[in-house]
Amino acid sequence: MINQYPAWKYVLVVCVMAIGIFYAFPNLYGKKPTVVMKSKLEEPMTEVFQISIETLLKKKNIPYQYAEIVGEKRLFIYFDANDVGSQLSASSAIKEIHSTRYTIAQNLVPDTPDWMSSFNAKPMQLGLDLQGGVHAVYETDLNDAMKNFVNQFHKRFGKELKEKRIRKSGLFKIISAAKASSNTSSDDSQNDKHKNSEDDFSDRYVALNTSEKYQLNENKYGIRIKFSKRNKKNFPKAKEYLQLKYSEDYYLYEIADPDAEDMYLTMLLKPAVIDKEKASVVEKNIAVLRRRADESGVSEPVIRQYGKARIVIELPGVQNPEMIKEIFGKQAILEAHGVSDNSPKGDIPESEITLTPEPNEVVYFKEKVLPVDPDDKSKGVKVVRYPKLLKKPVVWSGVSVKDAKAGFSSGKSASHAVHIKLDDTGGEQNSKYTTAHVKKNIAIIFINKERVKVKDKDGKFTGKYKITKKVTVINNATIQEPLYKSFEINNMGSSSNARQLAILLRSGALAAPIYNVEERIVGPSVGKENVERGMFAIIIGFSLVLLFMLVYYRMFGFIANVALIFNMMLLIGLLSILQATLTLPGIAGIVLTVGMAVDANVLIFERIREELRLGNSTQASIHAGYEKALVTIADANITTLIAAVVLLGIGSGPVRGFAVTLSLGILTSMFTAIMGTRALVNMMYGGRKVKELSL
Questions:
Q1: What pTM, to 2 d.p., does this model score?
Q2: DSSP one-letter code for 209
């Protein structure tokens, strides 16, 4: 008979609904504010310390739920779901006493019961606009990026000229409006006083491939080649070569006076090429930051370009701004250097030793966090620096790192380590050096650039910044045997240090340094207000739709309302399973989904009414209503789904949040409006005689 489902379809509908409801349920519990403490010395937490923290909170009259030690090394203090004020008060009170020995961070932890969490049931993620988090703006140092571009071209171009047997007296870098570097190739004159001054682009210069000429106030990036009296004969050959190979990307200039003692050829990057390279650097930085976010487990971060050089980072739910600095703000350049034979054996503090480097050597420092008083650790911690004398040549760099994983060393005494795998080029360089230096020491350094405020003599900010380069020796080991692609950096001190270094290496170094411009914590109180407004909008819209359907379509309207309620639960459950992030635009997508789900039922019910007016039986009308309306419903929903998928693919931020809920909502509404309501109608009317429908 018509209007009857086989048993498996009813089972399917019930199972899908049950799973949706189960995974939607954790959202009723929400998240509770939490303060997390962890020892900077990686010491395990003790019950005695936990009791001391609880005593402190009671003394300060700060209410909390309970405290517990998680994973032996972290202490979690939980607060009531809406008591953010107590969380912030507790964090401030604890920092006053324990900030030197412990890292203290605020977080939001799901309040889901353990038995539900065992099935991986979690509440859906809320966006920055709903639950608060960290908002930061970083600016890319594009001038530094162009400097690296010129440096790389300078090295490559020098080799190129040698291969073409074009001898010159000097090869200079032109970087912005600053004076040219005198970092010349091996046959350059060491006493050359050439400078990149404004006179470089006076009327003495003739453009070879363009009628345009750089303005003096423009940034200039390129190369200048000097030909002295002894190699002037190479000038025409070099000029012809440059015009043939580099005229597309570079403006070419020559000295107009052929009788001059020294001759010069100048190559300046065209503005379009500079803009393209700068845009590429920002794109590469965003890609690296996204990989770092994925590796660190940050849920649904928003990382997008803002203007030409700035990058916006938003971390919903994260209340610790230090996380942004540790994971996103570091350039993460890693290099291996040989250790000088004159470097001290073992770790000797900076205060007890002075090292004098040779021209091919440099002094860097290894730093350790140690207690001020080993016998009384309550006095806090201090950073001790140990000088290391290293050779300047780089054995291998982080560019060659293919993979990096945190773990333990393979030696007799297990220690926290990072297992590294190099590419072919890095492996060959590593093999060549370690084979020739067995039983010698090799050090690995971590390089990071930071922008710091310039202060006057009174300690006030002058409004200017300066760039500081910090180099830290993170490992100093003896080469026991020749190494190739795979090896380990041991003695990392802690699992968190090893994990953080592995994340930075796997995600890669930034193409150019980024500096913090703005950083702020968006309070959850703002998110709470937004959530309440969004939920109020959903409830009002949802209630009006339910009322209309019940009044206008009676029993069939009731069936549609039941399906609509299940649709909402199924959508929330699906968002929770996928751990998708719900934002204010996402709430708008849910409201739109409600309207579309009802629209499908309206089409079906009106089609049934039309069949009844044509004189068909009730069973035939129900069957025809669902069958004939299906094509129209599918067309409308599929076209909307295509638009939602396009928005999901190319959109970002609010647009992406709207597209996520809209696309998922279309899928759930198609299921509940067609298969769900059909199952209920079949159960009520299928397989029996019905004289009249309540429609």
A1: 0.61
A2: S
